[in-house]
Structures are given as C-alpha cells and as structure tokens.
Target: Type-4 uracil-DNA glycosylase
Amino acid sequence: MPPREAGAEAFVPATGGLSALSSAVQACRGCALHENATQAVFGEGSARARVLLVGEQPGDSEDVEGHPFVGPAGRTLDRAFRETGLRRDDVYLTNVVKHFKFTPAERGKRRIHKKPSAAEVRACTPWLTAELRLVRPELVVCLGATAAKALLGGSFLVTQHRGVLLDFPESFELGERGPDSVLATVHPSSVLRATDREAAYLDFRNDLRTAAEAVG
Model:
C-alpha cells in the first residue's frame, strides 16, 4: 500500500475504462480528505462527451449521494444547461478533488465546504488526468478558480479571462489527443452567493452558451 498523502497516482488503475476508475477511486488514500468524507465522488456522464465540465470538489449533497452536481449548485447548472442547449447526459461532469473537504456543522445543518489546499489538488489531479485521457473531450469548461488554476496554472484569474476560449495547455500532459480548447467561468455555487443572483446567473449562462456554440 502506498504511503498516505503520496498522491493519487499509485491508486489510479493502468487499464480499464471509466467504470474501473470509478470503482478504484473509493480506495484512494492519496491525501487525508478520505478520512472524513462519506465517499469519493467520481465523474459521471457520457464517455464520448465533447464537453467536459470540471468543478472544485463535491459538496454536502454530493458527498451523501455519491454523484457530482446534485445539490443547489447542480440545480443552477441544470438550469443553464436547459437554456443553452447542453444536456447533462451528453456532457461529462467531474471535480478536481474527489472527496468533500468541509467544516463540521451543527446537527441537522449542511456542512460547509472548505477550499482544498494546493497540495490536495495536486494529490488528486491524476484522477482528472485519467478522466480526460479516456473521455477525450473537445472542450473543457473549468467551473471556478480551483479548477481553472489546476489546468491553467496558479496565476490564472477567472475574473480576467472568463468566457474566453483558450488553447488547452500542453503542460497538462495528455499526449497528442488532448482537448482543443478550455474555457473558464465561475462555479455555479458563486451564483447562489451573489448579491444580484439573477445577473450573476445570466453571466454564467452566457459563458456556457459560448461553450455550447464552440462545439456546435
């Protein structure tokens, strides 16, 4: 057994498809986040998706149910899907970090997520790399700063480049058949926290519309 917090690479199976990865991730001990999470939450969607959307980490609802984007942020994302012509069944949804990092809550209340550290993101990135290699999307949509920095570098600012189609970075080692483009936008959870929620939603929806139009 690899040492704890050595990173996920040693736990990622060398063969098999997405189902093999989804099973293997439950045994991952690449960082300490597995200790308090209910389960790992792996990506879901079409294995041939042209668009792969990646967020930060599962939230409270996702940790309990075991599926990505099923909580309040997921409902905001589903609304944007309906209004831009994207379909959840046709895309692939995942997170950079597969275990829920949170602050314990009072009984009966939702646990509040804590931002994963840079070390935790690095430890978990081999799972995302494996997903990208198997799905081979044309376009990756980064939902929020954590996902954007994981793919585009620590100096990347979503506030300066959101909604813009960029070349997928060669530094993210996927071989010759990596995605063509990447687009960064905010995480749908930030829409729910915005002072003007509807305006924030419309900006978010417009970013997803750019993504939808990019793949025709």
In short: The chain has one domain: 8-214. The first strand starts at residue 44 and ends at 45. The two ends are 45 Å apart (CA to CA). The chain has a mean pLDDT of 93.
